[in-house]
Design brief:
Two copies of one chain form a homodimer. Chain A is α/β, with parallel strands linked by helices. Chain A has eleven helices and 14 strands. In chain A, helix 1 crosses helix 10. The longest helix of chain A is centred in the last third of the chain and has 21 residues.
Amino acid sequence: MREPIRIGIAGYGNLGRGVEKAVAQCPDLELTAVFTRRPPDQIQSRAQVVPVEKSKDYRDKIDVMILCGSSSNDLPEQGPFFAAQFNTVDSFDLHARIPEYFEEIDAAARDGGNLSLISTGWDPGLFSLARVLFSSILPTGKTYTFWGEGVSQGHSVAVRRLPGVKQAVQYTVPVPETVEKIRQGETPVLTPREEHFRICYVVPEPGADRDAIEKAIKTMPGYFADYDTTVHFITEEEFAANHTGMPHGGFVITTGTTGGGYRQQAEFRLKLENNPEFTGSVLAACARAVYRLHREGKTGACTVLDIPIGYLSPESPAELRKKML
Amino acid sequence: MREPIRIGIAGYGNLGRGVEKAVAQCPDLELTAVFTRRPPDQIQSRAQVVPVEKSKDYRDKIDVMILCGSSSNDLPEQGPFFAAQFNTVDSFDLHARIPEYFEEIDAAARDGGNLSLISTGWDPGLFSLARVLFSSILPTGKTYTFWGEGVSQGHSVAVRRLPGVKQAVQYTVPVPETVEKIRQGETPVLTPREEHFRICYVVPEPGADRDAIEKAIKTMPGYFADYDTTVHFITEEEFAANHTGMPHGGFVITTGTTGGGYRQQAEFRLKLENNPEFTGSVLAACARAVYRLHREGKTGACTVLDIPIGYLSPESPAELRKKML
């Protein structure tokens, strides 16, 4: 058997732990170390835990560094920092800033002779693959992306910041009637309200004004104002029992008409009991591809759109042709 | 605008006509000529129609030749013949013989300095991509492929060959109870009978023995013996009215468990009103990728597993990052 690919994890929140679990399921990958800005003794990993400042000592001990920091706070700085030293994989997901982030990572990775795969996971990532694949095959088609039913971290945080809110979670849910129409082959133009609705479970502070909280949520611009939102007030016990999971999912669907007037439909769907563990599994598979492409001489920044799918698999091209084609 | 990619079509049955319609929907592709072994005046194409023997005169007029012959009768000979002269795309679908076919095409294409993408379409092709993608991300997962509801040409032909059968069509249908179980996250071991059932519509010759036909179908080894099959006898009029379409589809579904014990599910589904037109659209998009990869210096045989998904799109990598990621 070949030597395993040596993986580093930078950042050890939910996603970092998800990557660690994913790597443990892959015999061809091996976790070398976790890099953190926290005091290392606070990290419960089975791997070696190393302060970020010492990462340069690991340049010849790690084949691919998987960056698990947040897109808003960590990656804009950590991405270029690590890309200059290591091959990297990250899940940068601020869609509007991806082109700019790509350029920064591309420059850093080229300088270091490394390869960096940015913005992977399931969206951006697998859903991006589906959008490009479907629209390339059905150029007359209309493509929709729906998210949920699942927890949106951004919306949950927005609710938790409101005065009088002790704890909260927000579920995004596709509107069933709309989904049904689209699966039947219709291609409507949709408002945000017709695509998704939002459900919030809120634990209020004692004595908080519930009507004021509900109103503040439902009218919050950018987050809730354009959607139908339901707010449920619950106890801390109910919250702890039923709302601490991280399920998510969604689907990309394209309906197009080919030359003879026939409707053709393609759909890619995910149903995830745990979002960070699944995202971690995508990042681990992508690390395999980055390792191989770098060995073939590729450097700079890339995305899942630039990677042959076979490179994600531990099996050889000949095995894949025989068993999977 | 760049010069369009010049496409040739070799073989002008249902698939060849599907490719012609697909190319007409893509402004960056241009159909140069259709190559045929039939008398050219029998072909109703809007493009130039050329006898196969004259294909060598078109070596510098065609960028990619799309091979639309049958896998059993035409491609084993035509594949290597064209791969030596042109970049090619084909839909060779005899799964067990793919490794051997790959080697033959690889040798011919390398000799000619060309690139040949074999065995594309939706299965093998898009479904292969889904199988490799899902099993790479969820290595503990179990992957199922279901076909239908749709017309199986092979099974329809097998029924039409029986004595007393004037016309026939066979629909393959996934067993709904099984599909429901799998979508709920179960991962059963299945017999063929638990996966699909088969429905035949048969127009008998006048005076034919219907019981004998039904028995011959239901007991036919390799085709029907391992499945539950329903046989309906219908009139020629009913056949012409309801059973001359070529719908198909199906799905690839994987359920796996990540390290924390969470079930994660991915599904890729197609619902096609016309199978050859959709397959033709896949082949056309693949021709775009072959053209680009050949320009980058790649030669020999390859499959969809070797191609970055972004190469299937008419848009540039920067545009795709901005709009689709």
